């Protein structure tokens, strides 16, 4: 009898995991609480994640649907260069360009690889119980589903993670983030980040005529701009060097997303018996390395490979947890450290630390970046 696997969560990690498992012949159902999962602006897919997508047969469709970035610059808010790397720096250091793609396009590609009816929306997990015959998941609507195994890909507030670990409280990081897409082309030389004291703006081409951007600012939790988020950003970043004012001027206010940033200690237990965690449910991380979704894609490819070769799900899940914890732990720590530096108080300390980053030799940065995001940083199991 074919082993059935229930994936909780239809985000990037959940969809990719389901696609990878179905590719190996497993019966998979994905339960998603939300009726609409299309929110999001853009996402950077680094070469390590492209290698993981290649393992599940979806690397080329993602490359074809996104824009490619071959270098990454760092400037101060007045336009002076903090770091102006050589052209093709990313390609040489990481093995290929990184791809910037709209989140909806990425999730459409992942969902399009699934058998019809795989994803069931409107199912919010409430409890998880492990028994002799498998795993029973009870949903908030009272329905119950049984499966041979469960993958918790349900994010920072994961029900499955709490089943394995007990309470896991998320923590406000002290700053908020905005994301948007500007109807304006970006000079490839300016792809990267522009820094200020306690603030930053990232900007990368999204195809030939749009730019994906994000911005962060220290702010109390739960705030909203009374005159609108885009109006607040235009006032805040208006004096900064181009292209930032133009990017904000060419962004539709309806397309601006604001989210307070949270993290949480990684789950102590990632797997027990036929239940396993993946993505943010296991290892939430701050966004400064662009690896949250990328590590979820690595999780998906690794988990499916192990399920396909190990004798049973508990063995595969336990090995997955051991392998992925070693890979992810340092990335989580580095992401948190960068966030703390960018948001040091008082703002003068943040400014000094950001400007001092120019003192780190390019070869050292490239070596560290390659250990995280190069194609060779992700290796298929076996």
Automatic annotation (TrEMBL):
Which branch of life, at top level? Answer: Bacteria
Q: Tell me the Pfam families matching this sequence.
A: FAD_binding_3 (PF01494)
| Required cofactor(s) | FAD
What UniProt keywords apply to this chain's record, in alphabetical order? FAD, Flavoprotein, Monooxygenase, Oxidoreductase
MF terms in GO: FAD binding; monooxygenase activity
What InterPro entries does UniProt report for this protein, alphabetically?
A: FAD-bd (IPR002938), FAD/NAD-bd_sf (IPR036188)
**The FAD-binding domain, residue ranges:** 3-305
Name of the protein this chain belongs to:
FAD-binding monooxygenase
């Amino acid at each position: 009898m074919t082993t059935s696997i229930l994936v909780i969560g239809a985000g990037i990690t959940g969809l990719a995991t389901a696609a990878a498992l179905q590719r190996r012949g497993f019966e998979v159902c994905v339960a998603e609480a939300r009726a609409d999962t299309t929110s999001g602006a853009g996402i950077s897919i680094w070469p390590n994640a492209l290698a993981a997508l290649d393992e599940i047969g979806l690397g080329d469709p993602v490359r074809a649907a996104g824009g490619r970035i071959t270098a990454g610059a760092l400037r101060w808010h007045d336009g002076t260069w903090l770091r102006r790397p050589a052209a093709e720096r990313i390609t040489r250091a990481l093995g290929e360009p990184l791809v910037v793609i709209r989140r909806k396009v990425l999730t459409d590609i992942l969902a399009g690889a699934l058998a019809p009816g795989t994803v069931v929306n409107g199912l919010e997990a409430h409890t998880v119980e492990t028994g002799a015959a498998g795993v029973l998941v009870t949903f908030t609507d009272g329905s119950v589903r049984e499966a041979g195994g469960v993958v918790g890909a349900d994010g920072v507030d994961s029900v499955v993670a709490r089943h394995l670990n007990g309470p896991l409280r998320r923590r406000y990081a002290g700053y908020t983030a905005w994301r948007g897409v500007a109807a304006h082309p970006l000079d490839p030389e300016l792809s990267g980040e522009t820094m200020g004291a306690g603030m930053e703006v990232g900007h990368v081409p999204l195809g030939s005529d749009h730019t994906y951007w994000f911005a962060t600012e220290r702010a109390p939790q739960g705030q909203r701009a009374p005159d609108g988020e885009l109006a607040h950003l235009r006032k805040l970043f208006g004096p900064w060097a181009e292209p930032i004012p133009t990017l904000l001027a060419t962004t539709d206010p309806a397309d601006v997303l604001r989210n307070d940033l949270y993290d949480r200690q990684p789950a102590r237990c990632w797997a027990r018996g036929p239940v396993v965690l993946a993505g943010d449910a296991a290892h939430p991380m701050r966004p400064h390395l662009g690896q949250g979704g990328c590590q979820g894609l690595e999780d998906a490819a690794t988990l499916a490979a192990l399920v396909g070769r190990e004798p049973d799900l508990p063995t595969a899940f336990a090995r997955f947890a051991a392998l992925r914890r070693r890979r992810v732990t340092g990335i989580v720590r580095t992401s948190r450290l960068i966030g703390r530096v960018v948001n040091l108080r008082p703002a003068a300390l943040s400014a000094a630390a950001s400007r001092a980053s120019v003192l780190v030799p390019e070869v050292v940065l490239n070596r560290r970046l390659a250990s995280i995001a190069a194609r060779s940083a992700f290796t298929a199991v076996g």
